[in-house]
Amino acid sequence: MKELKRILAYLKHCKKELIITISLIIVETIFELIIPFLMKDIIDIGIKQNNMQQIWISGTEIVACAIISIITGHFYSRYNAKVVTTFSYKLREEAFTKIQEFSFSNLDHFHTASLITRVTNDVMIMQNTLSGGIRPLCRAPLMLIMGVGLSFIMAPQLAWIFILFIPFLAIILFFIVKNVAPQYSKMQKNVDNLNQVVRENVTAIRTVKSYVRENYEEEKFKSANQDVMSTIRHTFRIAQLNQPSFQFVMYAVTTMILWYGAQLVHNDQIPVGALSALLSYILQVVNSLMMISNTFLLINRSFASSKRLCEIFDEIPDIRSSNDKQAVKNGKITFENVYFKYTSGSGENVLSDINLTINAGESIGILGGTGSSKSTLVSLILRLYDVTSGRVLIDDMDVKNYDLVNLRDSIAIVLQNNVLFSGTVRENLLWGNKNASDAEILEACKLACVDEFLPRLNGGLDYDLGQGGVNVSGGQKQRLCIARALLKKPKVIIFDDSTSACDMETERKIIDHIRTLKDVTNIIIAQRISSVYKADRIIIMKDGRISDIGTHDELLSRNQMYKELYDTQLGGANHESTN
Fold first, then answer.
1. Hey, how many other C-beta atoms are within 10 angstroms of the C-beta on 423?
2. Domains in the chain, ordered, with CATH?
3. pTM value?
4. Torsion of CA 305, 306, 308, 310, to 10 degrees
């Protein structure tokens, strides 16, 4: 319940419209309730006493009430739309903004598909709850109080029958809500799982087809889809008891009132008009209660969604930005007694006893086997993760003391898993510098060897890359990502095996171009010695530790692993031959 209150607090962004909406509902309801009371006078005075004047007066009043109800209902719809859309807009915006603040370790707490579902589907559920709930929640109490009150004024001998059935309605509603509420949470988790299956399949559709695993994926989707269907079917089977149960009570009350009321009318104890008006009130009140019972089901579903949204809001970002606006000036990097593990409950450290100084403008190569934590090491420089113990410094200042925007703007990283976005080549490259001119873009393309294939693309910089860059090859993707990074004009540039899809000649050109950049510290993580042998120093990593560090010649003379790797990859040839 407290989570729902927190989410509904976002109505503060449309408080004025909400007050107007509620006011219009109240006015509309009051005038609707007046109509049966006026109808009573038409029957008892106008028709029964053949009083045409009373018929015209009461008829005019009924028409006026109906017109006012229609007008207020129309304006209610307009203001309600403003309330609902503003509420969902602010809620969705807040959730998305909070996700942008998450560090990698925060994101590890959620499945990607679950975050997508929460920002879209769960917000939509909250929107539907608000859209379908404001009117019944405002009308029903007023209908109940005024309807029952006016019923006792007109025919107290009959009104008690309706009061007698209210506990039955409450028991029915309690039973339905109790059994349905837990199912909604299960339903959302099943939707998460379904979205995860769809997302994985669509993202990896080429791999699926190349391994001829369509049938396997179809079975996996069928299973996830079956879980969603079964949960929804079970939930709705119980929820659908709501309407027939209330209708049964409504017809039972109506039958008893007609049976007993007919006797009272026959004995002249109540007028016919009062009985007719009473039946109208009974129908209005029960219909309102039926609507509010449906609203309770919506609210119960929103409990699960509000809880899931609050889990996003309550996630505390592990990495906080400093208010110090100092920028990186030189690019000197120092690791002091650094230890790191992904979670505090993990047994072993991923990185241990890292002590390293990378001078400004220095070229560093990093080699190591799979799982040696090469990528983890460089991720600490940008504070994608924070160290467990020790310090990482840039220009002799702890990275934790930098403003995150200034820190990451000064560092460019090109990952092994290249990410391009839907749009043109130019639009993707401008991620590096949104104000870059075409001349600057073409210069970055030249350094990244993009100029070798750019003229072949239909439209050049305006070539549409498609979703995720599907219209270019893996090597072309890597080069575009490198060009995008270079447009940042960084003080530190990190290549995380980001030329693996390029041929050796292209890779050599790119790395040579990078090394011509003045006052730029460059770190190259690679699997190939040809990528790093020209570096000022080469770091060998093993099991999360620095195993050795030195120049190419030094490592070749003393490090057996490096020598074996060199002999395997380059056939023991003199490294000058690779120039």
1. 16
2. 2-314 (1.20.1560.10), 333-578 (3.40.50.300)
3. 0.72
4. 170
Task: Give residues with Cβ within 8 angstroms of 383, minimum separation 6.
Answer: 103, 319, 399, 400, 402, 404, 407, 408
Q: Return d(Cα 432, Cα 422) in angstroms, integer.
A: 15
Contact assessment for residue 188 and residue 123, using Cβ atoms and an 8 Å cutoff? no
Among candidate residues 254, 241, 252, the one with its CA nearest the CA of residue 290: 241
Q: Note down pLDDT in tens along the chain; length 579 residues.
A: 788 888 988 898 999 999 999 999 999 888 888 888 788 777 777 777 777 888 888 888 889 988 998 899 889 989 999 999 999 999 999 999 999 888 877 887 888 878 888 898 889 989 988 888 888 888 878 877 877 787 777 777 777 776 777 777 778 777 777 777 677 778 878 888 888 888 788 777 777 777 778 888 888 889 988 988 888 888 777 777 777 877 787 778 778 878 888 888 778 778 887 778 777 877 777 777 777 777 777 787 788 888 889 989 998 888 888 888 888 888 999 999 999 988 776 678 899 999 999 999 999 999 988 888 998 999 999 988 889 999 999 999 999 999 888 898 899 988 777 788 888 999 999 998 889 999 999 999 999 999 999 999 998 999 998 877 888 888 889 899 999 999 988 999 999 888 877 888 888 888 888 888 888 999 999 888 888 888 999 999 998 999 999 999 999 999 888 888 888 887 655 544 444
Q: Report the C-alpha gap between 433 and 451 in whole angstroms.
A: 19
- Residue linked to tokens 């007993």: 260
